[in-house]
Design brief:
Helix content is 77%, strand content 0%. By secondary structure, the protein is mainly α. The relative contact order is 0.15. Pfam families: GntP_permease. Its main location: membrane. It comes from Pedobacter mendelii.
């Protein structure tokens, strides 16, 4: 009966978000209250449980998400993203221009949140399309596949970062494993798949053709690439250095401090403030305005994450999570595949990769702990599942359709199929990694 209640509550969450179009944060709060009452938690205890769940998940994520948004906004506003695109295309040339777009999307996708990266990259995509007279989807889909994969697989993006915290994974190792899984997913879902779409016409709306910065206004290539890659460099170093240093080394405490994801993001933001801001002639007040504007882009993401933490806490305190884990242990399926499947189903119903990933976490954590599944790989399995089945209830689906001027049918044939390809390839990569590192 308790499992049925949970399933009905999840179904209610899906209906509230996708059918009645209720704000995801409010939907999480309402479903958390209903779930608490239905599962027998004393009514007086439900508010404190909700507050605890929200505080626990936000306490460790707020700095990462907010500072990451500020960094992404500065990368966009400074022209660093545009410079990365120019340099990449200069290196690869017209013949291998798809790979230039993949590299650009991947590098820009690491510091930028998906929506910002999407809006920023589309004008660059069409500038290449017009310059070289190439099919828009052939050029654009590889870049957007890279953006999508970094959003679903790699910290410090909100959903993977939140999953790292909830699964008690290692941020640096998850990033390294994620890179190994992301590369084949991007290649297959991007350049290989888009090569089959050359015949699909695309016509961007005039309002989507953004003005590019002049060459004199752009930061140089070193500043642009270094800033975009610095989070990866620091997180990777924080994972590897403890392996080669003695535990009694005087440097050990400082490496642990500097390797904390929150401190890493703060270090990168300070470096970016100088490299992409002050040294480019921007005033401090102008940079702070950019940072303030960035908060508007991620306010709802923070609230959705908080809401998911509330529901997770209700499920935990009711004891139903353990009952679900006991039930799922009898299901003859690999836990990583099961987590991927649950995330994929929720993504299909809700349309949000973030909601799908965070909702799955509350269900799968007890099973993961009982089965001793690698938490770093579990983050990636859930992330891959959360990218599956993008369709009409996903904002990204409509952004792609409108920006590229596609019909509904062609959007399904291109965008929706690409998202499912990267999700399936991501799962295959996770399962293969699980065999290798087991």
């Amino acid at each position: 009966m308790t499992i049925l209640i949970v399933l009905l509550c999840i179904a209610l969450l899906i209906v509230l978000i996708s059918v009645f179009k209720i704000n995801a944060f409010l939907s999480f709060l309402m479903v958390s209250i209903i779930a608490g009452l239905a599962l027998g938690i004393p009514p007086a205890k439900i508010p404190s449980s909700i507050e605890k769940g929200m505080g626990d998940v936000l306490g460790s994520l707020t700095i990462i998400i907010i500072v990451g948004a500020m960094l992404g906004k500065l990368v966009a506003e400074s022209g660093a993203a545009q410079k990365i695109a120019q340099v990449s295309m200069g290196i690869f040339g017209t013949k291998y221009i798809q790979w230039a777009m993949v590299l650009t999307g991947f590098l820009i996708g690491i510091p930028l949140y998906y929506g910002i990266g999407f809006v920023l990259m589309v004008p660059l995509i069409f500038s290449v399309v017009y310059r070289y007279k190439l099919p828009a989807l052939y050029i654009g889909l590889p870049m957007l596949a890279a953006l999508s994969v970094t959003h679903g697989f790699l910290p410090p993006h909100p959903s993977p970062a939140a999953l790292v915290i909830q699964f008690k994974a290692d941020m640096g190792l998850t990033l390294l494993y994620g890179l190994a899984v992301a590369i084949p997913a991007i290649i297959i879902g991007g350049p290989i798949f888009s090569s089959t779409l050359k015949a699909i016409p695309a016509s961007p709306m005039a309002s989507f053709k953004a003005k590019e910065l002049t060459e004199e206004q752009l930061p140089n290539g070193f500043k642009s690439f270094f800033t975009a890659l610095l989070p990866v460099i620091l997180l990777a170093a924080a994972s590897f250095l403890p392996m080669i240093l003695k535990s009694d080394s005087a440097l050990f405490p400082y490496i642990l401090f500097a390797g904390s994801p929150s401190i890493v993001m703060l270090i990168v933001l300070i470096a970016a403030t100088w490299l992409l801001g002050l040294s480019q002639g921007k005033k401090t007040t102008e940079i702070m305005t950019i940072y303030s504007d960035a908060l508007k882009d991620i306010a709802m993401i923070l609230l959705i994450i908080a809401g998911s933490g509330a529901l997770k806490q209700i499920l935990t305190e009711s004891g139903v999570s353990n009952q679900i884990a006991d039930y799922l242990q009898d299901v003859n399926a690999e836990p990583l595949f099961l987590a991927w499947m649950i995330a994929a189903i929720i993504r299909f119903c809700v349309g949000s990769a973030t909601v799908a990933g965070l909702t799955t976490a509350g269900i799968i954590i007890p099973l993961m702990e009982h089965s001793h599944t690698n938490p770093n790989l579990m983050v990636l399995a859930v992330g891959a599942g959360s990218l599956m089945f993008s369709h009409v209830n996903d904002a990204g689906f409509w952004m792609f359709k409108e920006y590229f001027g596609l019909t509904l049918k062609d959007t399904f044939k291109s965008w929706a199929l690409m998202e499912s390809i990267v999700g399936i390839v991501g799962l295959a990569g996770v399962l293969l990694l699980n065999i290798v590192i087991a």
